[in-house]
From TrEMBL:
CDD domains: HisKA, PDC1_HK_sensor. Keywords: ATP-binding, Kinase, Membrane, Nucleotide-binding, Phosphoprotein, Transferase, Transmembrane, Transmembrane helix, Two-component regulatory system. This is histidine kinase. GO terms for molecular function: ATP binding; phosphorelay sensor kinase activity. Residues 331-548 form the Histidine kinase domain. InterPro entries: HATPase_C_sf (IPR036890), HATPase_dom (IPR003594), His_kinase_dom (IPR005467), HisK_dim/P_dom (IPR003661), HisK_dim/P_sf (IPR036097), Sig_transdc_His_kin-like_C (IPR004358). Its EC number is 2.7.13.3. The chain crosses the membrane at residues 12-32, 275-299. It comes from Pseudodesulfovibrio mercurii. It holds the Pfam family HisKA.
Length: 558
C-alpha cells in the first residue's frame, strides 16, 4: 500500500469521525455528566449511612463488652471477695491487662459507700447514695451514665451493675477512660470540613467536636431523629453545605452524629466535569489521533500478514532442505553399507581361518580373534547408524500411513544419542505400550519431534534430563517432551510460536523452528501447547488424532 493511499485513508477517517461522532459525543457527555452526578450523590448518601451504621455498631460493641465484663466479674465473685482490697486490686490488674479502657473500679454497698476501690483517686470516703446514677442502677440493675465531671473533676462516664447476693445488694462500678472512648469516634474519616461526635438527648457533647467545642459543651442540632435507624439530613453551617448522618446508640440516651461536606466528597465529580470540558475542547485533536491510530493499526495488520507469508516461505525452504538432507543421507547410507558388507565378510573369513586351526594357537591368534570381534562390533554399530539414516530419509513427500508413535520417538531420540551423551544429558522415555497406531505423515511428525528435542538440548546445554512420554486421551494420542532447562519467562510464553521469535542470542537462532512445528501440527490435525516457569523447565504437549486430515502427495496429484 502506497503512502498516498494511507494519506487518503487518514483524511477520510477524520471526516467520517467528525461528521458522525462529534455531535453525538457532546450529547452523550451531557447525559453521562448528569447521570454520573445523580449516581455519585446517591452513592455518597449510602456511604455515609453505612459509615454511621458501622461506627454505631462499633461503639455499641465497645459499650456492651464493658458491660459484659463487669457483669461477669459481679457474677463470678462474691461480695466478700470483691470487698477485699487486695483481691480487688488483683482483679483490676487482670482486667486492665486485657482492656485498658477501664480507668478505675469500685465496690459500693447498698448504703452508697465504698467497700473497696482500685484506682488513682482517693474515693474511699465518698458516698454516692444521693447521686442520680446510684438510684438508677439500684432500680434498673444497669446504668451507663452521661459524660460528667463528678468527684474526679474531669470528663468521664461510668458503667455500674447491681448484684444481689444472700440478701445483700452491692454495686460494681467502673470508670471508662474517655480518651479510649473518644478515639472510637475521632477515627472516622470525614475530610477537612467534616466532624464526628456523640451528643446526649439534651444536645450536650459527650465527645469533643472539631467545630462544636470540647466535651460537655452544648451544641444545636437542626433535627432529632425519631427512629432507630440512620437519618440523613443536610443544612448549611457558616455558608458551608453539610450532610449529616444521625443515629441513636442502643441502651443509652446518646446520638452519634457524623458530618461531611458534600463538595469535598464530590470533588472527583468536579474534576471529572473539568476533564469533560477539556475533552470536548480537544475533541478535534482526539479525532485526528483516532484516525492516526486507525492507520497505524492497518499498517500493523499488514506487517503481520507479511511476516506470516515470510514464515510460510521459510517453512517451504526448510522442507526443501530436509528433503535434500534426506536424499543425501540415503546416498551416504548406501555408499557406506557396501564397504561395511565387505568388511564384515572379510572378518568372517578371518574367523573361519582361526576356527579351522590353520594358524595354530598362541597369544597372537587370541589377539587376532579379539580384533575380529571388535571389527564385528563396530561394523554392527555402523550398520545401525546407516539404517537410522535410511529410516529418516525413506520418504520426503507427504504420505499418510499407520504410524507407531513410540517407535518414531525412540528412533528420533537415537539420532541425537551422541550429542546428548557428549553433553551429559539423560533422555528418559515413558512410552505407553498399549498406544494405538495413528494415521498421519511419519516424516513430518519425526521432524516435529526432532525439532523439539534439539530445542530441549539447546535449553539444557549440559547436565540435565529430557523426558519423552506417550499416552492416550479421549481425542487420540499425546506426546510430552519435557526438559530440565531454565524454562521460558512468563511474558514470552504467548510468543514462542510466533515467526522469527527466539530467546537465543543474535545469530544462534532463526525463530522459525517452533513456528514450523505449530504449522506442521495444524496441517496434520494436531495441536501443541507449552507449559513453562522460570527455573522449572519446559514441557511441550502434542495432541494428535487417531486419523488426521486427508491429503495427497505430489505423485497422486500427477
Amino acid at each position: 500500500m502506497s503512502s498516498s493511499t494511507y494519506s487518503r485513508l487518514k483524511w477520510y477517517l477524520v471526516l467520517i469521525i467528525m461528521g458522525f461522532s462529534l455531535v453525538p459525543l457532546f450529547a452523550l457527555g451531557y447525559f453521562i455528566h448528569n447521570e454520573f452526578r445523580q449516581t455519585y450523590e446517591e452513592k455518597l448518601t449510602d456511604n455515609l449511612r453505612l459509615m454511621v451504621a458501622n461506627r454505631r455498631d462499633a461503639i455499641s460493641m465497645f459499650l456492651n463488652e464493658r458491660v459484659v465484663q463487669l457483669q461477669m466479674l459481679a457474677d463470678i465473685h462474691t461480695f466478700g471477695e470483691m470487698s477485699d482490697q487486695a483481691y480487688l486490686n488483683k482483679v483490676f490488674d487482670a482486667i486492665h491487662g486485657t482492656s485498658s479502657s477501664f480507668f478505675d473500679i469500685g465496690v459500693i454497698g447498698q448504703n452508697g459507700g465504698h467497700e473497696a476501690y482500685c484506682g488513682p483517686f482517693d474515693l474511699m470516703q465518698v458516698n454516692y447514695k444521693d447521686e442520680p446514677w446510684f438510684h438508677q442502677v439500684m432500680l434498673k440493675g444497669l446504668y451507663i451514665s452521661d459524660v460528667f465531671m463528678g468527684f474526679r473533676n474531669f470528663p468521664h462516664f461510668i458503667i455500674a451493675v447491681k448484684r444481689q447476693e444472700a440478701g445483700r445488694t452491692w454495686i460494681l462500678r467502673a470508670t471508662i477512660d474517655s480518651e479510649v472512648f473518644t478515639s472510637l469516634v475521632r477515627n472516622v474519616r470525614t475530610g477537612k470540613q467534616g466532624d464526628a461526635y456523640i451528643v446526649n438527648d439534651k444536645d450536650v457533647l459527650q465527645t469533643p467536636s472539631r467545630f462544636g467545642g470540647k466535651a460537655l459543651t452544648r451544641v444545636v442540632l437542626p433535627v432529632h431523629p425519631q427512629g432507630e435507624g440512620v437519618e440523613i439530613q443536610s443544612w448549611r453551617r457558616d455558608g458551608v453545605p453539610i450532610i449529616a448522618g444521625i443515629t441513636p446508640l442502643p441502651n443509652t440516651n446518646w446520638r452519634l452524629v457524623i458530618m461531611e461536606n458534600p463538595e469535598e466528597e464530590l470533588s472527583p465529580l468536579i474534576r471529572t466535569r473539568s476533564l469533560i470540558y477539556a475533552l470536548f475542547a480537544g475533541c478535534g485533536l482526539m479525532i485526528f489521533v483516532g484516525a492516526y491510530v486507525t492507520v497505524s493499526s492497518a499498517v500493523s495488520r499488514l506487517r503481520a500478514s507479511d511476516r506470516q507469508r515470510a514464515a510460510m516461505d521459510a517453512a517451504v525452504i526448510q522442507s526443501s532442505k530436509m528433503a535434500s538432507l534426506g536424499k543425501l543421507a540415503a546416498g551416504v547410507a548406501h555408499e557406506v553399507n557396501n564397504p561395511l558388507s565387505i568388511i564384515r565378510e572379510s572378518a568372517g573369513w578371518i574367523r573361519d581361518i582361526i576356527n579351522d586351526g590353520e594358524l595354530g594357537e598362541g597369544p597372537a591368534v587370541d589377539e587376532l580373534q579379539e580384533a575380529v570381534s571388535d571389527i564385528d562390533r563396530h561394523v554392527e554399530r555402523a550398520r545401525t547408524v546407516t539404517h537410522r539414516m535410511l529410516g529418516f530419509a525413506r520418504r520426503m513427500e507427504p504420505l499418510q500411513e499407520d504410524v507407531d508413535l513410540n517407535m518414531l520417538a525412540n528412533q528420533t531420540a537415537s539420532f541425537l544419542e551422541n550429542e546428548t551423551r557428549h553433553r551429559n544429558i539423560e533422555v528418559v522415555t515413558e512410552l505407553d505400550p498399549d498406544l494405538p497406531l495413528i494415521t498421519t505423515d511419519a516424516n513430518q511428525i519425526q521432524q516435529v519431534i526432532l525439532n523439539l528435542l534439539e530445542n530441549a538440548i539447546d535449553a539444557i546445554d549440559r547436565d540435565g534430563q529430557i523426558t519423552v512420554i506417550t499416552r492416550t486421551d479421549d481425542m487420540g494420542v499425546v506426546l510430552n517432551i519435557a526438559d530440565s532447562g531454565p524454562g521460558i519467562p512468563k511474558e514470552y510464553l504467548a510468543k514462542v510460536f510466533d515467526p522469527f521469535f527466539t530467546t537465543k542470542p543474535t545469530g544462534e537462532g532463526t525463530g522459525l523452528g517452533l513456528s514450523i512445528v505449530y504449522s506442521t501440527l495444524s496441517k496434520l490435525g494436531g495441536t501443541i501447547k507449552v507449559n513453562s516457569e522460570s527455573g522449572q523447565g519446559t514441557t511441550f504437549t502434542i495432541h494428535l488424532p487417531l486419523t488426521g486430515p486427508r491429503f495427497t502427495s505430489a505423485k497422486e496429484e500427477a
